[in-house]
Specification:
Strand content: under 5%
Distance between the termini: 39 Å
Radius of gyration: 27 Å
Number of helices: 9
Shape: rod-shaped
Largest sheet: none
Structural class: mainly alpha
Length: about 240
Amino acid sequence: MLAAGLVVVVITVVRHRRAADDEDTSETPDVIEYMTMWIGVVYAIVLGLAIAGVWEGRSAAQDHARAEAAALHEIKERVRVYPAEVRDRIRDDVDAYVEHVLTTEWRSMADKGEVTERGAELLDRLRRDVTDYEPRTDFEAQAYQPLVDQVTAADQARTARAESTGNTMPGVVWFGLLTGAVVTIGMIFALQIRRTGRELILAGVFSALIAFLLYLIWDFDAPYSRDAAESAEPFRYLFPHI
């Protein structure tokens, strides 16, 4: 952000020194002012829509992680009515899956933009251990279907998390955002800005603001990679022992 503002200030100063002695900067054609106003308005709308889009994607990604962690936690809690051997095996399956997600799969999502096959295998093993058990009492039978439902919820949340991995903004949108930033800032020079203190400050702040908004979009664009620690927080909160 500071670099963007500094670049504009430097270019403005250099342009001022190289300007012709008879250059008249006291008047700016009305059409340029009109175009500058509309370019700024249109670009502000585009920036707002882009920020809203990546924020919505980021929120949805966090919801998927919370839903998956909550379903796995419910499995560990509800399985307490089962015999000790079955209960411990299912809980070990949950812990093994969560550990893999936190230590390996999240890194794979950040580096490769995809989930791992090992994670799918561990979840399938958990599903088999839950569904293959035959309840022996009415109390166990009452707990069986909710456990199966929680496994399904975890699987659905994992699928949604896999679909949300990677960048959400297409390359053509980034091209439009960057081109719009260049055009918008370039209009500063079209208005024949000089190096008075007030104009330099406004040009620098305006450029820094655009750079900050573009950085904000870039940071929110991949919620599972650039904010990996925050996006995995539901798993760490519900499974602090892992």
